[in-house]
Design goal:
Blueprint: H1 2-12, E1 13-16, H2 21-27, E2 32-35, H3 37-40, H4 43-66, H5 70-81, H6 87-93, H7 98-110, E3 114-118, E4 126-130, H8 132-152, H9 158-186
Antiparallel strand pairs: 1-2, 3-4
Helix pairs in contact: 4-8, 5-8, 6-7
């Protein structure tokens, strides 16, 4: 436990540097050490900071090369793995609000990467599939995305990386269940 606390305390101090020389001269800021220990003790804060940094790298690199952002990549991968998935189910499992999912699917469809099909059993329902262009796009992007993910977690051993993924999945399942129970209790 002492080792974990020492590691936590060393991570709690972060150096903040101005974005550019202009911001430095305009504000008179110098590099400051900021104590974030009250926040870094919170799982949500630490997860969010790591997520933002990984997404920023992912967005910068894959958008520049392929014009695919993290949300679009996640949707394309999920549709590839689950051909015929319904948009509402996809929104739920990816924790995206339905209106936002609809906008994203509209964009992916305009780009020619996905197609919507009416359900055969229920003409009102829609299912999602990748097009041939979508299959090609996801094939090109996936290898780079995996390489970037491995690079982002290079500070971890393979075992630690697998353990991190397992723990995040466990936390996600727990929180999803907690939210569902709270929703049911509210009526």
């Amino acid at each position: 436990m002492a080792g974990k606390l020492e590691n936590h305390q060393s991570m709690a101090r972060r150096t903040v540097r101005p974005q550019s020389k202009q911001s430095h001269s305009a504000t008179g800021l110098r590099a400051h050490s900021v104590d974030l220990s009250p926040l870094t003790a919170l799982v949500g804060f630490s997860v969010r900071v790591a997520q933002l940094q990984v997404f920023e790298q992912f967005h910068r690199e894959l958008w520049r090369r392929h014009h695919v952002h993290p949300g679009a990549y996640s949707v394309l991968v999920a549709i590839k793995a689950n051909p015929g998935i319904q948009p509402g189910l996809l929104a739920g499992v990816l924790a995206v609000k339905r209106p936002n999912m609809t906008k994203l699917l509209d964009t992916l469809e305009r780009r020619g990467w996905i197609k919507r099909q009416q359900q055969k059993t229920d003409g009102r329902g829609v299912t999602l599939f990748l097009t041939a262009d979508g299959e090609q796009k996801i094939s090109r992007v996936s290898e780079e995305a995996m390489a970037m993910d491995v690079d982002a977690t290079a500070c971890l051993t393979e075992r630690e990386r697998a353990q991190l993924i397992t723990l995040l999945e466990k936390l996600s399942v727990h929180l999803r269940g907690l939210n569902e129970r709270r929703s049911l209790a509210r009526g």
